[in-house]
Amino acid sequence: MSTLPPGAHKETESVQYAAGLAKSYRGRDATKAFAAILSNYLVVVSCVWASETAAGASSLLPGAGLTVYLFSVLIIASRMRAFENLVHEASHNNLFPSVNDHYRFQFLYAFPVFRVVEDYRRSHLVHHKHLGDRHKDPDIVRLFNLGLDKLSERPGWYLMGMPLTGFLTYEYLTTSFWEFWDSSTSRSAKIIFWGSIMLGMAYWKLYRTFMYYYVVPFLIVLPVTRYWAEISEHLGLDLREYLGSSRTNVGFLHQWYLNPHNDGYHAVHHLCSQVPFHLLPKVHTSLMEASEDFARKSMISNGVMETFHQMKTARTLVKGAAS
After folding, report:
1. Number of H helices and number of E strands within the chain?
2. pLDDT digits (tens, 9 = 90+) for 120-170
3. What is the pTM (predicted TM-score) of this model?
4. Best CA proximity match to 140, nearest among 266, 319, 310, 322
5. In sequence order, what are the beta bridge partners of 301?
6. Residue 167: alpha-carbon gap to chain centroid
7. Which site in 64, 119, 191, 248 is 20 to 30 Å from 4, CA atoms measured?
8. In degrees to the nearest 10, what's the CA dihedral of 177, 28, 188, 215?
């Protein structure tokens, strides 16, 4: 005799239907992957050019140089986040039809942001396997250790105060950045890549450019950008459920700043992690039309402030929490 609670069979069937529909969209496309990588580099180069041009014209337009530079730093940080999102896609083998290409080309999108695909995959797949478990999901463990299980009690501090203290830079340097160099995975490739960058910078005397357009956005802006993006995915939701445990962030700033390359379609991603980034919007639309339960349980945000409001007005319910 079944021991499932009332309605569980219907929910299971609904999840299976939605997941089955999502699985029909699994076509990897190397052209789109390379286009996404190239687009990030083009945006960064354009920002550097615009900032340097504005700085040269500062005598004609006082303050223009600093204003353009600050905007450039914000945009460059968003492209760094975009590269991190491509690493996330690669951890699911979603960029290229060939699995090996994810490793062969990781110097284009992973090494520049101090990531290694294989190392990231190990931790991230545990997150998928134990989503919402207070003790087994590494993402939830980290966020709750930062105090975010109490976000609704102190929203101002956790959404704006703590991110602007500089602590997130310290946390990053002592965890992910350190692990990048400490890991033996792809060690020779990492050394060759960053050794070449350092030699090139020294040869062409690009210290100032590297500091202004890489170090500043990477260590000052990106940690905050990454934090806001990461907490927007699951906080304020019931992670004990399958549907409705991931937020869909589709506002303008989400798509172009916090969650580039369609990373905001997180509900679809957790329903079927094999859907590549360029098909996520299409799958989301199909599921909203075809699955009543998916549409009813989806938490959708059309703006960053809306996401913040959703997180601060609802508790995050997790598996394995003390009663």
Report:
1. 19, 2
2. 999 999 999 999 999 999 999 999 999 999 999 999 999 999 999 999 999
3. 0.93
4. 319
5. 249
6. 19
7. 248
8. -30
